Amino acid sequence: WFDPDLVIIDECHQVMWSKWAKKRFPRLNKTPDSLTYSPLLIGFTASPWRLSKRENFGHIFEVQIASQSPARLIEKGDLVPTVYYGIAGADIKGVKIRQGDFAIGELELRCNAPGVVKATVDNYERLCPQRLTLVYAVGVKHAQSLFQEFTTRGHPSALVTAKTSDEERLKIFDSFSQGDVKILINVGVCSTGFDRPEVSCIILARPTQSKALYVQMIGRGMRLCPQQGKSDCLILDQGGNIQRHGSVEEIEYEPLTEL
Predict the structure, then answer these.
(1) DSSP 3-state of 210
(2) pLDDT digit string (tens) for 132-191?
(3) Which residues pair with 134 in a beta bridge?
(4) Does 22 have pLDDT greater than 50?
(5) What integer is the mean pLDDT of 188-213?
């Protein structure tokens, strides 16, 4: 390994707090070594937020250059507009918060209740049948329940998790883009970096306190796809996320602040 003078990092809202980054860039740990090696860092992200108040972009980067807001990009025709529906979901009152977000184990128990899973599919059939739909589940058991419910009702569906092999993922993603699979249910796979512009419906079957995750999930459905006649993206929010974070169009980038 060599010590570069310039380091460019994509998706820096995730990478800059990874073990790899902290090992490579001592200044992230505020150690004396940071005085001897401090390359110019340029980070890119569409979601510059962290859950932990101790993890602040202001102690890594000195200058922030904000791109155009989602609202402006929609106005210019670079993104499709969104249509939001808040739908009945699990009662998550009392679910513990761990590391800034809902505790996954407790959250999954609530969201995987049969009535909640049934409501997810009911609302899909009512609001967006036949749309290419990306579903975000809380955990694997929740995703499996959703997959079973969609499949039982005759909707061509697929499921991807962290354990799905790369080869199998590519096959599923291709079938999804071609429309052979109408509903793709995932657990932490199809957020940052997932690029299938044909998606025109997002189902947020998982609540989250993370603004970054929220923006990334909705962003998967806002890309242009004129060859498919795509004119908007429906957002079915079953987790109270719109109420918690506001619409993506209302979200503004926050200025850098020092800890």
Answers:
(1) coil
(2) 999 999 999 999 999 999 999 999 999 999 999 999 999 999 999 999 999 999 999 998
(3) 184, 202
(4) yes
(5) 93
Amino acid 49 reads W
Distance CA 122, CA 133 (A): 14
CA dihedral sign, ordered 113, 153, 163, 136:
negative
- Where are the domains positioned within the chain? 6-59, 70-249
Report the pLDDT averaged over residues 220-228.
93
Structure tokens at 252: 């503004």
Domain 70-249 class in CATH: alpha beta
- Within the chain, where are the H helices? 12-15, 19-24, 70-76, 104-111, 114-127, 140-152, 166-178, 211-219, 241-245
pTM: 0.85
**Residue 157 to residue 150: CA distance in whole angstroms:** 7
